[in-house]
Write a structure and sequence with these properties.
Helix content: 10-25%
Number of strands: 10
Largest sheet: 6 strands, antiparallel
Strand content: 15-25%
Order of helices and strands: EEEHHEEEHHEEEE
Radius of gyration: 18 Å
Number of helices: 4
Strand order of the largest sheet: 1-2-3-4-5-6
Distance between the termini: 16 Å
Length: 223
């Protein structure tokens, strides 16, 4: 939990001080990923995680949106930022010296570090299909006021998927720890916003979701 106004529940980058995923008591969720694109080396003075933290320090979605046009895209390495609330959502990324924004309609959206650059996007299609298939059992569990632990189990199955999407390449799976990969999945999080008790419920797996259990963090009350 981060102290402030509004209060924030998020991970913390111990090196640069920002975060990659979090929520605040004003019902805003924000996440940032590194964009994998070909670009010249740039001297980016500010961590992308600090931009994500800026979004979580906003009291309204309007404040979050209004802050981006005043940002210098060159201050950051390539990023993809997603900001959402019950009022709406948008994605933003830096390109050609500016920060572009894309309004997101209500529904299911899937992003990766190659979003807006990968024309094939088989991995995104696979993830979208899995989450769409999980929607019905999730809706039933949540409608019938079942334990959130059961809903976490449904999403854990999706996040643990090892199906190689591209020519048997394990790095193209959702959960990555292929023997030949120089990177991989190191943690996972699931967040629910409950209209019943007016709280964010945050579950975190401090490891690969296929091998590590999700544990609940103290819930964050919303205003």
């Amino acid at each position: 939990m981060w102290r402030g106004d509004p209060p924030i529940l998020a991970g913390k980058d111990l090196a640069a001080g920002g975060t990659w995923l979090g929520v605040n008591s004003a019902r805003i969720a924000a996440a940032v990923v590194n964009r994998r694109i070909k670009t010249e080396d740039i001297d980016a003075p500010r961590s992308r995680g600090l931009l994500c933290l800026d979004m979580l320090q906003a009291a309204t979605m309007a404040d979050a949106r209004a802050a981006l046009p005043y940002e210098d895209a060159g201050r950051y390495q390539p990023f993809l930022l997603v900001v959402a609330s019950a009022e709406g959502a948008f994605a933003a990324y830096n390109a050609t010296g500016d920060i572009a924004t894309v309004e997101l309609r209500s529904g299911l959206h899937v992003f990766s570090n190659t979003s807006f650059t990968d024309e094939k996007a088989q991995k995104l299609d696979r993830a979208r299909d899995l989450f769409a298939a999980a929607a019905e059992p999730l809706a039933s569990l949540l409608k019938n006021d079942m334990s959130l632990d059961s809903a976490v189990d449904v999403l854990k199955t999706v996040l643990s998927d090892h199906t190689p999407i591209e020519n048997g390449d394990g790095k193209s799976a959702l959960c990555v720890h292929a023997p030949d990969a120089d990177y991989g999945t190191v943690s996972s999080s699931i967040i629910f916003l409950s209209s019943r008790d007016r709280r964010f419920h945050f579950y975190h797996s401090l490891g690969r979701p296929c091998r590590t259990e999700f544990h609940p963090l103290p819930p964050l009350a919303i205003v």
